[in-house]
Amino acid sequence: MPTQIIDGKSISSQIRNELKEDVKRLTDKGFQPGLAVILVGENPASQVYVGSKEKSCNELGIYSEAYRLPADASEEELLSLIDKLNKKKEIDGILVQLPLPEHINEEKVLLKIDPDKDVDGFHPINVGRMVIGNPRFLPCTPWGIQELLVRTNVDPSGKHVVVIGRSNIVGKPIACILVQKAKGANATVTICHSRTKNIEEIARQADILIAAIGQPKFVKADMVKDGAVVIDVGVNRIPDASKKSGTRLVGDVDFEAVKEKTSAITPVPGGVGPMTIAMLMMNTVKSAKHRAGEV
User: Fold this and answer.
1) Which of 173, 213, 217, 241 is paired with 292 by a 20 to 30 Å CA distance?
2) What pTM did the predictor assign?
3) What architecture (CATH level 2) is domain 140-273?
4) What's the pLDDT at 249?
5) Catalytic site includes residue 117
């Protein structure tokens, strides 16, 4: 049976179409979903992400505000802006684009966001709710991974999921999400990281292998068992003289070699990436539903 290439663009498009109906209904009731995005500095990748988020809001009919602060903006200035947005009733979600300049304390900034507007799912209150299985907002990339699995009819229940990577943004939360006693979860989860011994041996036990380690082509074919599902979260730029930019994007998985052994695999680009913004939009709409008294 040929390998299924999991199309994140197509699945994220399905989600957006579903959200359009919710946005219209909420807007007609006087509760148009609203998202505020804050960018500090001029990180090129962050500028692209912020632009994508603005475009997605416009396409869905979500009200959006973008705040672009200079790289030398003070921590106090940023905290004050978040405070104003916390009180602004037409704003359902606040997202501060990371990374922040070194002189700004990231933890202090994330703590300042009202947990009920934390559509990135990074506030400790929302992290705690996720862990106990009663989430308000799930972090966008891990939730996007779960949706990819569910919408491609890959049921994690009873499966052994191996996660390579233990970041607070992907590795830890996807493990928490998939271990829950819930639909689209109920997996047995193992987390591997830079100090794990016999990582290849553990990876080969995975029914579902999730690579989120930030190392190009780290996962080789001999680390994957026949018929496994492989989810590649990595976004790495490597030199490529044939490209105009001089670089190309690759994941954490050696895609061409690994895909021959899998039952399903995500490509890079076009796999997990498009899901992140789709789930951010979903969280924003969910917050607006809460404001409208629907949830």
Assistant:
1) 173
2) 0.95
3) 3-Layer(aba) Sandwich (3.40)
4) 87
5) no
